[in-house]
Amino acid sequence: xxxxxxxxxxxxxxxxxxxxxxxxxxxxxxxxxxxxxxxxxxxxxxxxxxxxxxxxxxxxxxxxxxxxxxxxxxxxxxxxxxxxxxxxxxxxxxxxxxxxxxxxxxxxxxxxxxxxxxxxxxxxxxxxxxxxxxxxxxxxxxxxxxxxxxxxxxxxxxxxxxxxxxxxxxxxxxxxxxxxxxxxxxxxxxxxxxxxxxxxxxxxxxxxxxxxxxxxxxxxxxxxxxxxxxxxxxxxxxxxxxxxxxxxxxxxxxxxxxxxxxxxxxxxxxxxxxxxxxxxxxxxxxxxxxxxxxxxxxxxxxxxxxxxxxxxxxxxxxxxxxxxxxxxxxxxxxxxxxxxxxxxxxxxxxxxxxxxxxxxxxxxxxxxxxxxxxxxxxxxxxxxxxxxxxxxxxxxxxxxxxxxxxxxxxxxxxxxxxxxxxxxxxxxxxxxxxxxxxxxxxxxxxxxxxxxxxxxxxxxxxxxxxxxxxxxxxxxxxx
Length: 479
Ligand code: 5AD
Ligand code: SF4
Hints:
There is one protein chain. The chain is α/β, with parallel strands linked by helices. It has 14 helices and 22 strands. The strands form six sheets. It has a seven-stranded parallel sheet, sandwiched between helices. Strands 18-19-20-22-21 form a five-stranded mixed barrel. It has a three-stranded parallel sheet with strand order 10-13-14, sandwiched between helices. Helix 8 (218-230) packs parallel to helix 9 (255-266), helix 9 (255-266) runs parallel beside helix 10 (283-291) and helix 13 runs parallel beside helix 14. The longest helix has 24 residues, at 392-415. It is globular and about 65 Å long. 40% of the residues are buried. The model has no long low-confidence stretch (mean pLDDT 96). It binds 5'-deoxyadenosine (5AD) and iron/sulfur cluster. 5'-deoxyadenosine binds at residues 89-90, 203-204, 302, 304, 342, 344, 373, 375-376, 378.
């Protein structure tokens, strides 16, 4: 191994879960003396892959780098520090990053002082870090999801020593408050309510890359949301790999339902949350969502498969029947609720009949939106060592059939909106047409619309005129 400082990830350690209470660190973030002006006159370029947890981490990373004097650039060739915040959920997510690293390598020939960093979930993977060390010399700095707060020190070390720095913790993790943050949105904000995951679904790498389920304290979450409201934010999305587990590690009963209710009472106009697990989605939660108008009627409820045997092998803790019953209970209380889901096809040995059950589930729930994936083996997860008799071509065909059905319901649901008036939080001008605004309805539908006197951050009433594949068109109406 070339000279450098190495603390490498370990899959074996990342699996461990103890009963030890999680440490909540409230100390105010302070830059180490020598790192304070490290960024003055220097620029960084940050690219984020993957889910909202990574987006939110990137907001912290930008906050930290700006506090060191760095300024952000959108041009890779202008940067002194390039950082990729990566995703490991499927192999294609990793391939994208590895491809990007290849493309960016040439920038080092024109700027030999350029520092290349990689963080996020790929950094937590033993196999990937070994690969990076062996074949991607251009990467100077690797750090993981548990030690973002160490970035100033690690960057300083890398720049001064001109040696490679790898620092990845494979531990359960803690909760660190008061890190700097530069929010990417002016009207919509992500708010972490918990970190990590203990579900260990057999296909999933997240419990290994993000550590144990650990909740932020009630008071910390509520004061963050109050502050956002005071700053004029219109929407918060509560984030966790499995928000229904909120509070369990703190010994709180009905933690998420209670938290949601307290958040609703703060009176911020829009509250969303993601992701909820169908397993411990309680009736208390349904009641609270139905009770408050500012909790949006849009639920993301990953089903993964419609077949109970498959769900068992996936380690999902619910059956096809119990999922349908949950769906029924929600729809009964909130007939206008929109539903989205995640579905995996081609899990090892999935039969045609089992796949048919997934199609049946889509017919039953008539999802507004479904994110569909071909199963991708993840090193170290139980499913990765299962024999698999399903040919790749069959998996692709299943995905295509599934997508056709999903598209049918998505369109059917959208058609129902034509002629109706919906409330839209304005994101700004549409990316494709500067005469047209865009934003999301309460049901989380993307709406493109025309109107006068419209401003970013307004909530306006829009009459839907027609339907496109992924969005609805409309015009502002005044009451
Ligand atoms: N292969 C394919 N899809 C996966 N997901 C998680 N792990 C895998 C995997 N190994 C999907 C699940 C999850 C979503 C975020 O990604 O559907 O809900
Ligand atoms: Fe992965 Fe399952 Fe945890 Fe979701 S609940 S992050 S699919 S292990």
